[in-house]
Each structure stands twice: as C-alpha cells, then as structure tokens.
Design goal:
Fumarase C, Chain A, domain 2, single chain, mainly alpha, 226 residues, 9 helices
Length: 226
C-alpha cells in the first residue's frame, strides 16, 4: 500500500515542477511556502507521502527477520522486535493514506501544460503510432520494407535541430509516403497526441465502474450535472 502511495506522490512531485507544470498540489494557507522565494510552492504532501513510502521497506524487513527467528510461541527478542516495527508501519500507512486523500481530492490538473509539453516533443513522439498505421500501406522500395522506410524518415529528422524537427518530419514523411496513400488530413490525425491514447479510455472505464461512488452524475444526455 505504501509503495502505491509513494509512486503517486513521486509522479505528482515530478509533474508539479515549474519546468513541467502539468499538475499542482492543493494549496493551504502557509503550507509549502519559502521564506526566501515567495513564488515557491513546495509539494509538501508528496514529500510526506514519499518519506513514509521510503521508510516502509526497512520496517518490513525487520518484521521478516523477526519472523524468521521465531522460537516457540513467545520467542525471546524476535517477538519484541516485531511490535515497534509494526506500530511504525501502521502509523506511516495511516498518515500517508490521509495525505494521499487530500492530495488526490484537491489535485489541480493543467491540460494546457500537458499539451504544451507534448507539442515541445514534436512529431517524433507519435512516430510509433504513425509507423504502425502507415507501414502496412507501403510497398517495398529498394529492398526496404515500409517500416524501414519510415524509420529512415525518423533517423533523418533526428539530425535536424529540435526547433526544425516538426517541419522536417512532415517534409520527409511526404517524400516517402504519397498523399494518395496517406492524405495530409490523415497525417495530422496521426500526429495529434489526443488521438493516441492506447488503452487509457478502457482503463478509466473499468476504474470508474469499480468505484461508482466517485463518478460525477450526468443527465439523460450524458452531460455533467455539476
């Protein structure tokens, strides 16, 4: 349980960095402020949760070592070693769960920041999806399969400066794939990150189905009621 809490906290701590800025912890008066940098907002909840998660393995190891050294019903030393570790584990787990609930319920998400970072990555971020969709449509040329032709497009794009890769990729792609095979409109669809979500929708559906109490009610037309 603490491992899962720690993973969530680590993701939030990373995504809330100013240079990433895709999420932010819920704000509370006086929490996370810096005396030297008034603009700074430290991810206090994430730090506390991660601290608990990083302490847990050592305490769990203590429990295992005690269990491995049991003698009779009331072993000398081993039995007594378990209780401090177990109490500390329970305290850490309860504290982390409480902080995680506050973090999850108040987490601020910035889709515009996510899209900005995706756009900074350029079209190569979608190269896998493009290859999967387009390679089967290409005939072999000069002994190269469709996949190899598209890999060459990627390799040549990587030689361009980052600021020029978007234009370079589109130019090279069009040189390798005629518009009759993949129209410009279809290429733009393939290069839109919003259309390359994998199993995200199905995973979300299964989670919400398992926990219906967290689903926002909708009206008869499927619109959110508030």
């Amino acid at each position: 349980m603490l491992d899962a809490c720690g993973k969530i906290a680590a993701d939030v701590a990373f995504l809330s960095r100013p240079e990433v800025a895709e999420v932010a912890e819920p704000r509370a008066a006086g929490r996370g402020v810096s005396s030297a940098m008034p603009q700074k907002q430290n991810p206090v909840l994430s730090v506390l949760i991660r601290s608990a998660a990083l302490q847990a393995p050592q305490l769990a190891a203590q429990l295992h070592a005690a269990a491995a050294n049991f003698n009779d019903e009331r072993p000398d030393g081993a039995w007594h070693t378990e209780w401090p570790a177990l109490r500390q584990l329970l305290a850490l787990a309860l504290g982390a769960a409480g902080h995680l609930r506050e973090l999850a319920e108040g987490l601020r998400v910035f889709p515009e920041g996510m899209r900005r970072n995706l756009d900074l990555s350029g079209p190569l971020l979608l190269a896998e999806g493009v290859t999967a969709a387009v390679a089967p449509l290409l005939s072999e040329q000069d002994g190269r399969t469709g996949k190899q032709q598209l890999q060459q497009v990627v390799d040549r794009t990587l030689d361009a400066p980052p600021s020029e890769q978007a234009a370079t990729y589109r130019k090279l792609f069009r040189g390798a794939v005629p518009a009759a095979v993949v129209p410009d409109s279809r290429l733009e669809e393939l290069l839109d990150p919003a259309g390359y979500l994998g199993q995200a929708a199905e995973i979300s559906r299964r989670i919400l189905a398992a926990y219906p109490e967290f689903v926002t009610p909708t009206d008869a037309n499927g619109a959110f009621r508030g």
